[in-house]
Each structure stands twice: as C-alpha cells, then as structure tokens.
Amino acid sequence: MTSGRLGSPMRRRVLGAVGALAAVAASTAAVSAPAMGQAQARMPVMAASGTPRRRLRQGITPHLFGATMDETCRMAAALGIEGLDFASDPADWPLIRQHGLMVSLLRVDYGGGISRPGRAPAGPTGWNAIGTPDRDGGFEAALRERIDAAAANGIPSIIVTCGERGAIGYDEGKRNAIGFLRRVAPHAEARKVLLVMENINTGHTGGPPAPPGSMFDHLPWGLDVVTQVGSPSVKLLVDLYHAQLMDGNLTNFLRQHMPLIGHFHTGGVPGRHEIDETQELNYRHLATTIADAGFTGFVSHEWTPSAGQDKVAMLRKCVDIIDV
C-alpha cells in the first residue's frame, strides 16, 4: 500500500471527480449521514426508476484511492460505498462516521492502528497467524481488546489469518487454529462481533507476493476449521481472488456454504486488478449468487487499479458490477 497526499494536479482531478460523483449520488438517492451503528440499517440505493437496486453492501480498502482519509471517505460515499476495510486506527473513526460510513472490517495491527500507509510490522511469532502457536499470548490479548473496541464502535467484523505452514503441516495448523478460535469465540459472541478467517493463496505470481506455504490456502481446510469451532461468531472471509487461484468451482462452494461465510474480498484474476470483463472471473454472476443466497455482510474491493487508469471511474464500474 502507498500513502501520502496527492500532488496538486492529481488532487484537483480527484476532488473534481468527487464533486461530480456527489452530484450524481444526490440525484439518485437522498442519503443522510447516519451514525456508524445506523449504517447497517440503510435503505437500498434507488435506481433512476425509483426501484431498489442495491442488494449487497460494498466496502473498499483505503489504499485503493491512494488519497487522504478524508478524500477517500468522500469518494467512497459518493460512489455508494458503505464501509472501509482495514481502517484500523481509532483516530480515523470519527471522520469515517461523519461521512456516513462505517469500518466494515477491523485488523489487529501490531504496534497500533494502521489505516494508511499499509500494513503494520509482522509482530512476534503467532501474531495474526492462528495456525501457529501464539507463544506469548500477545495476539490473543490484543484480539480480545479489539473485540471490545469493535463492539463499542459498531464495527461488525475482525479479520484473522492463519500464517504460513513452514515446519507446521496442515493438520497441526488446523488444531492450532481451532484451539485458538474456541478460546476467543465466547468473547466475540458476548460482544456480538464476528471473527472472519481469510484464505490466502500459496506462491502464485501475478499479484501481490503470496507466502510459499500459506496455511489456509484451500477453502475446504478453512471450512473444516469453522465447522469444528461451531460458533456463530466465527466464519470465513472468502477472498475470491485467492480462492480462484487455488480452488475454482466458486459458484458451487458459495451456494453450499454461504451460512458459514461472513465477508468477501474481490480482485481480478490474473493480476489482482479491477474486476471487469478483462478478467477470468465473472463477478456479476458471483455477486448474483451471493445476493440470491441472502448474504447480508460486506463485499469489499481489495485490489490495485491497473496503471494509468482513472481510479474513480474504474471503481464506479466495479461497484456497478457488484450492484446486482
């Protein structure tokens, strides 16, 4: 991820696009700026015909625009986005609420909340890698604190990941992940916060580097973990980009297991860029499948725009693809 304020020419183009998008949004929907706790209860955005058209709530990761948090929030709101994934710094949360948005997915960053400029340091062994032993209990303690913070601020979900296999095989990693989640699930249940475990591909190129041996790289592995934990507060975060690289057959998986899925990430294959017709995944079909199954969580855009593209126009197109 990158950070920093936009240069003045780019900044003027971005702010001009924000104004244009805001005008479009104002003409198609009268959307107020509800508090974070009210954002989940929004009415669907209305199409020009006056009929509801939004069946899925969409989010973005702040790095997508490469802008300040205020500019990102303004652009997201104008596009009909409802949430920001990984806006993990509590200092940003009042601003996000002011724009009528919510933090859709929280990350337990090592060394403090990171919304920008990217990922926090990896932390000690076991930090946000629940398939490996949390040797000093630091991540578990931090996760419990984040569960409390999420509950207090209307944040629905927290991401957990499983780390790399290394010397630990799939079976031992599964036992570690199940044990960890069984310990923290009652706390999450009591606070009505959802823990979502993300799949990450093993070693594929054509996008951000992937670990050579991701522990949760195949969907059936994670499905077994979630099933054995057996908590309503523990579900899958299905990253459709990673899942296509490792497993495919996504439509059947989604139809069979939607009750155990709590969050989605999108990304084009190959390259993990925009999710348009240049990619092999038919995201319009996937979005219809997800909506038809009654999914009520977030489908969030976590990809990097192709070079030389108008980011705002590109994201509007991708939002429309998911906007079944």
From TrEMBL:
Domain Xylose isomerase-like TIM barrel: 95-317
Residues in the signal sequence: 1-29
Taxonomy, superkingdom: Bacteria
Keyword Signal: yes
InterPro entries: Sugar_Epim/Isomerase (IPR050417), TAT_signal (IPR006311), Xyl_isomerase-like_sf (IPR036237), Xyl_isomerase-like_TIM-brl (IPR013022)
Pfam families associated with the record: AP_endonuc_2
Keywords: Isomerase, Signal
Keyword Signal: yes
Protein name: TIM barrel protein
